[in-house]
């Protein structure tokens, strides 16, 4: 029953409804040997720039910078005057330090028996050959190279080869369409494309070359297309095409890595944004590598001699750039790369990989964790996961219940979970627990890293007190921040620096709890306005997921004559739960008792799937269309467009009882 009148004025910017009392202290042994101690926060507070200078000193510079930060707001330059080579830092220096035989990547293809082990010495030779090949093909410093590849070793090799010669890579996720690829090639004016015949996904070869053929046919600026043979499937051949093995294999295995300026561009990565043209997020060299490598070492407490690290993201997303390629390699880590999907050939595939390689650090996304919850805990229970010592989460707010499930069924209640908040734009992790320090709360990103100044503010840009909700902002520049949007400084300023004067606005809602710890509450575009209260999608979703029958939930605000907007929830049940007659009433009551009556959904629909972007984030916009009986908006970034049909079919059966 609605207790408030619509449009009621409230003081709060965003409601804070959820209380969580569970705490997990760091394991004593881990804390005692942790790479980072609580002093790091104090050090950085005393002198933020000196803190980042020390982080930069973990890299090898050909020339030291003269100015740590030049801040011409909102345009930053870090480590000005410094020179370094990213590929040298990620590969060669480790070989020179005697680590040539250390494994850089254990690569696991999707089909049975497709695996490869690549040491740092091998990686050095492969990157050198690829860099020589790019130069033979006429690629020069500053040129843009589009990369459209499956998750195979040639992908990081191609990225590192670009970085080595100072070419700017633009990796386009290998599931994107012809038009997405074409727009990205055109926007960056790429002269070379690197691709493969295909990759393996869901048990079969998935072609990539035909997409490139169509896109390149409309991009006259592309001079050559280099094609890796992965699946052996048939491909059309044009006179721009050249096989990777034909051009790369015959190159010398040495290549001189010339130093580049700290502010030379390293890569462009497109992020879709809510409307219109994708934004080409530009990252540069010195600051990006400083923060990705420091955070990878600190947040995962990396012990490169003994850890086996696995980040399950696709390299086509920023998580893959920063935490499969640049961060781990700069730290001389040993990583796993997996080509395929978690359910091929069976739903235990991830756990089989953890067992096979004795993975110690696992970094994955809430969407995957909730899928594993849905499949049931008996699946991971069949594998030996005792090698794991740290678990990470990224991409969306992790619901407390998913966090606790992850901790228990994957981490055996022994591994700290780090919930890492960051974005394509931030380049590296910004807000997160540290595994040897933080007494973590399930669902909270907790605290800005040392050297990062984050805040939660109200509509006017003023800090909210503890217990308050509002907008997440970053107050000071950080080394791995985006430098601009490729070719569009104005859009950079408008998008990120105009909402609050002098503050970076990432577009996320957040709250600060009674202890001052930060919780992310979802994108502000998704916030629901119910009877004058701004209610976060995350809190209602987390309340639903805390019910033992629910694996996953998405909520949206649909227009309502009484309350302005009303909450409509879409839920996926856990593997063992049966859909019963009164499940909707049961879940509505559960939300009301967890968060209060204001957050009680008007309607609950049990659905088999939720619409997700290709990086696994829930697309609430489409659910809003369904909930308001509108024609569906743009579905082109959806992983599986049949999902919306399944959901729409459920709609007439929906109960909207008012109890
Ligand atoms: C790394 C990545 C960025 C957006 C971000 C936020 C959401 C990411 C999160 C999280 C809550 C976390 N997000 N990590 N929300 N808690 N730990 O995902 O980059 O693809 O650019 O997305 O993802 O909404 O603004 P990107």
Describe this structure in words.
This protein is of the alpha/beta class. Among the domains are: 331 residues, Rossmann fold (3-Layer(aba) Sandwich); 127 residues, 2-Layer Sandwich (GMP Synthetase, Chain A, domain 3). The chain has 20 helices and 30 strands. An eight-stranded mixed beta sheet has the order 12-11-8-6-7-14-15-23, with helices on both faces. The protein is globular and about 70 Å long. The chain binds ligand 6R9. The site of ligand 6R9 has 21 residues, from α11 and β25.
Overall pLDDT: 94
Main sheet overview: 8 strands, mixed
Report the CATH superfamily of the domain at 28-114 and 256-306 and 316-508: ANL, N-terminal domain
The percent range for helix content is: 25-40%
The total strand number stands at 30
* Total of helices: 20
The poorly predicted ranges are: 1-10, 653-659
Radius of gyration equals 24 Å
The CATH class assignment of the domain at 28-114 and 256-306 and 316-508 is: Alpha Beta
InterPro entries: Ac_CoA_lig (IPR011904), ACAS_N (IPR032387), AMP-bd_C (IPR025110), AMP-bd_C_sf (IPR045851), AMP-binding_CS (IPR020845), AMP-dep_synth/lig_dom (IPR000873), ANL_N_sf (IPR042099)
Domain AMP-binding enzyme C-terminal: 539-617
GO cellular component, one term: cytosol
Modified residues (N6-acetyllysine): 617
